[in-house]
Amino acid sequence: MRAEVDVEDLLKIVLVLVVVWLALEIVGEVLGLLAGLLGPLRPLLGILIVVLIVLWFTDRL
């Protein structure tokens, strides 16, 4: 049996993830060194977001 997820809760999760992503982008632009380090890790950030959403939907988070 799946737990119901309210649309508002899902929007809050997406909003937090987008804010984190934007914060990383801003810090990366301000600190050029950090941008160089995050360059190859950006796909991993997307994978992390997908994994967090899947874990949320399967009630393992």
UniProtKB/TrEMBL annotation:
Keywords: Membrane, Transmembrane, Transmembrane helix. It holds the Pfam family DUF7554. The chain crosses the membrane at residues 12-35, 41-58. The keyword Transmembrane helix applies. This is Uncharacterized protein. It comes from Halogranum rubrum.
